[in-house]
Amino acid sequence: MAFDNRRLAQLANHDAFLQRHNGPDADDIATMLETLELDSMERLIEQTIPAGIRLGRELDLDPPRSEAEALDYLYRLARQNRVAKSYIGQGYYDTLLPAVIQRNVLENPGWYTAYTPYQPEISQGRLEGLLNFQQMIMDLTGMSLANASLLDEATAAAEAMALCRRANRKAKSNAFFVADDAFPQTLDVVRTRAHYFGFELIVGPAESIADQEVFGALLQYPGESGRVNDLSQLIHQAAQAGIMTCVAADIMSLVLLREPGTMGADIVIGSAQRFGVPMGFGGPHAAFFATTDKLKRSIPGRIIGVSRDEHGHTAFRMAMQTREQHIRREKATSNICTAQALLANIAGFYAVYHGAQGLRTIAGRIHRLTTILATGLRQAGVKLVHDTWFDTLRLTGVDAGKIHGRAMAQDVNLRYFADGDVGLSLDQTTTAHDVGQLFDVLLGEEHGLAVPVLDEAVVAEGLTGIPPDCQRESDFLTHPTFRRYHSETEMLRYLKRLENKDLSLAHAMIPLGSCTMKLNATAEMMPISWPELARIHPFAPQDQVAGYKQIIGELGAFLKEITGYDHIAMQPNSGAQGEYAGLIAIRRYQQAQGQGHRHVCLIPSSAHGTNPASAAMAHMKVVVVECDDQGNIDLEDLRHKAQAHHDDLSAIMLTYPSTHGVFEEGIREACEIVHEHGGQVYIDGANMNAQVGLARPGDFGGDVSHLNLHKTFCIPHGGGGPGMGPIGVKAHLAAHVPNHSVRRLEGVDAEAGAVAAAPFGSASILPISWAYIKMMGARGLREATELAILGANYIARRLAEHYPVLYKGSHGNVAHECIIDIRSLKSSSGISEEDIAKRLMDYGFHAPTMSFPVPGTLMIEPTESESLYELDRFCDAMIHIREEIAQVERGDWPTDNNPLVKAPHTMTDIMQDEWHRPYSREVGAFPTPAVKSAKYWPTVNRVDNVQGDRQLICSCPSIEAYRE
Ligand SMILES: *Cc1c(COP(=O)(O)O)cnc(C)c1O
């Protein structure tokens, strides 16, 4: 038996990580197998994974390292990066993350292991944090509405373009205008998106906006070379010409600059990175997206709204929860799912901690130092391209070669333009001493300029780079939340108070099907705080990023071996973005083969909403393939539809194991059918946790897959992001994966556009997945997969007597998740899947995935990290809930007054003097004795979704509402 070997492994390495990562120990495994009436793990796997696709060998990976060894090795790699002073700017700036936020949010599993707040009653803390973020963005941009983050500034710009097209119904043109002083990486991503939407892209001087025949326009504020100018006139002219305007704004500059909302912008987007989120070689960080009130129903991504709970108390929730990809599917124009919740929270807390005054000090100092620099340079006879600036200068007519030489010698990174100009941007970390050094670098040692003397002149003469009509006049961050927490003691307690409201993996298992809420080990998380990884600019010179190159290369090699693909592209920042990148690779490849007319994408009816949405964004026509009663793809229907589209079939998007949680026997055949008809096979990798070490999509027919590193490969969910969705591709697609205009990628077609702002996406969280694989090794990864499958089957077996389990493979087994059907209970008792989800909160659990992929069901995914103890605790809760439902069925409790429909129970409920319920307070809050020993209290009653959507309020409520 494979697990006997563990004893030997323990001798060899007493601190093997896999025993920490995997929940069940050898005795637990024996018990679970016994419950399933199986004599070995091998038998379970034989019966679960079709023989035809099993790998049949161990993955070829290095032997596993202990936590200490892996971190040592990783640190050696990280040290090969050189942390230089970065003045490159261009959307990425060094910043100071307040230590109280670093330790209590970024490095705190109470925050980073939480899931997207679909269950608001157990998510009020991070919902409040995200609402702060929205309020901050609304205040700084001067807009009426903001969402709670997109993936980066460039994709936010692309989303803005799509929104303009949708909202500007009057415009006949199919062209979009981008001002020529937008960041190049923004233009790159917008260009890709425009191409597949079938939009023409026009690039020109901002001043030419009104002459264009376009439906929308993007202006950068300040421009990429630092120019600050009043956009009101241009925006007004554009509006007259029927053009909607989006302004890409720098968040720090908005502290001092007039807000684009007052200039008439329809949409304002940008990056919140420099509000405390380290550059991380490109990410992760949160982008913002703000609009006028008129556009509130079409804003992409997640919006946090204010609603009420059952007792009328203020409660936060995600507004319009079911975002458009799930409703509109192939008609969607956005596929955003995982966003950047953790980083949005951090940026919001940065503003809470500093307050308006603190931000004015920070932005004011950045601007003053820039003004000192500009004044000195001009005195020295250097020509600046613009007379206005916030933090960015562009020098022209200089000897860039000499400057470059001096800069390199002093570890100073500047921006070098193709025409010989030199640019630089200052940031929160810049000091007066740094400005002195910049004079040395830019002018040579003999310049004779003194920063204190210049400073005196700047102050005395009131010098500024901000023109009068661009000075900010309005107040911002006036809400009490932004005034109260400026001492560290207050801030610490605020963060703790919010954290305590939320349920995370630090409390209990989060059995969300399709989301793989496994352990995010502390050792895996530690490297993200290392300056050698955190303080690297994405466009830093190649010779400063050798460490990142090595880490990305090694992780790519691991993932190739794990998936069976030939090449891994690291750019996409989420699974959905990976889908988009993968479909584009297919389309580019087919184009190159003279098959560009192929545009039909087959998608099974059970697919995740992002699949059809991504296909639509890649300009494909979605044709739905039916599933049979067992949840398998109907191969007959597939054959029929592939045949019917023989001439224009581009691809199929399959999820494996299926979203129904089954290893379909026909997968190879399905792939073959599509290949026979000239199509490519996209396999959605969200369910890789059921395959790693046992089967590889690249072996059984996949041409391309995305991997959700934030599911299978241990990047934490962060309450709704960050994520990483790299794609694996077969060799023929390798040249067609995303490239990047600022940092060209080797082996990729120069014509291939970017899908994200940074060449390697959210590079700074890749070491998490690297460490996971390094510490698990081949056997550890395989055992993790086996345990994930064992756990799901164990739960299915224990619950089967109490709830119908939908969809099983031919031997009656499920894959790594199982679906229980609540529909019959609903007709017999009136109790819904939602009631069960809310009741689980009283037992201290997060609900399983609700109504995906089948309405009226719950999908449970335990992962390998949960011990038998925890699996049993969950099953016991579910079984106990079933008994409660039986009491409703029997009529012991009325259908409208029982612990299920009244769930969740708050402490306030239980402490009320009056109690008019047919069940005791104890049954309400402590349904089993086990709950008493570690009670988690939801802080609000059931939240009213309808009210929240009907009356959309996305700003911080009055302080009275908080006090209620
Ligand atoms: C999570 C998931 C996605 C989307 O991934 P994101 O990283 O959230 O964009 C796509 N398909 C399936 C089946 C998923 O579970």
Explain what the structure shows.
Helix content is 39%, strand content 11%. It is an alpha/beta fold and 964 residues long. Among the domains are: 361-470, Alpha-Beta Complex (Aspartate Aminotransferase, domain 1), CATH 3.90.1150.10; 572-761, Aspartate Aminotransferase, domain 2 (3-Layer(aba) Sandwich), CATH 3.40.640.10. The model has no long low-confidence stretch (mean pLDDT 95). Strand 9 and strand 10 (314-319) form a beta hairpin. The termini are far apart. The strands form six sheets. It has a seven-stranded mixed sheet, sandwiched between helices. Strands 16-22-21-20-19-17-18 form a seven-stranded mixed sheet, sandwiched between helices. Bound molecules: pyridoxal-5'-phosphate. Pyridoxal-5'-phosphate binds at residues 337-338, 514, 574-576, 608, 610, 655, 659, 684, 686, 708, 723, 725.
